[in-house]
Amino acid sequence: MSTTEEEIFKENIVLEYTLDAPPEKVWRALTVPELAASWLGTQEHRPEHRPEHRPEHRNDDPAYELLDTTPFSRVRYAWRDTGTDMPETLVTFEISPAPDGNTRFRLTHSVRATPPLAANCNGAPIARAA
Amino acid sequence: MYVALALAKKISTCLSLFMNDRLTPESEIFRALADPTRRLLLERLSASERNATELRDGLSISQPAISQHIAVLRGAGLIEEEKQGRQIRYRIRPEGLSPVVDWLTRYRAFWPARVDKLKALLKEMDQ
Predict the structure, then answer these.
(1) Of residues A8, A28, A41, nearest to B104 (C-beta)
(2) In which domain, by residue range, is B60 found?
(3) Cβ contact B42:B79 at 8 Å
(4) Domain membership flag for residue B73
(5) What's the complex ipTM?
(6) Any B CB within 8 A of A45 CB
(7) pTM
(8) Does residue A126 form part of some domain?
(9) What is the pLDDT of residues A2-12, one digit of tens each?
């Protein structure tokens, strides 16, 4: 079994870095829409602004939606590949203080997204923090 | 009567959502993978082909539930089956995984590039 297959079933992309900035600053870069847009190269799509599902409005830029945040520790985005009809995926950023005023930064991108409505008709819908 | 109507309405909503779901292979594949039990079944199958009983071995999941998961995985093209006498054996369908491999490849390149931009941004930002 190839490494790739193994990763598929764990289905996670996990990246870890130490950033040369305090957690509060990293936190702002993740949660202030203008700052996030500048490094992600994409805008936040809020549900109320979501364009109708019309092919002419689609492009290949991914889009994200801030799902929930734990101050200075965790931020989660619902990630959307707008160029395809892929369901949303889940991007989790975990940050914590590192020595010398730096930040330990861990990024997880997973297909274990907050499931869309249709995922299970028998269960109660899962409430989504907006 | 009222309950029956409400139930019928709920079922039709479910059905229409289900039909919408069938639009693209990608969305089926990713939804199939979004379930931890199904990922476990795939992990088992990637070690060797198995029948339903072997797949279920050691799991506290009912036979109908396993069948359901197998149906979802087959529907998404992630596994295939082969009749061997009275047995049905299941195995991974590697080509079914290619959209996931594409996704992984794309984001493995995407995120390090974005984190470089984040680092640059943090340098520019005021405290």
Answers:
(1) A8
(2) 24-124
(3) yes
(4) yes
(5) 0.74
(6) no
(7) 0.69
(8) no
(9) 555 666 666 57
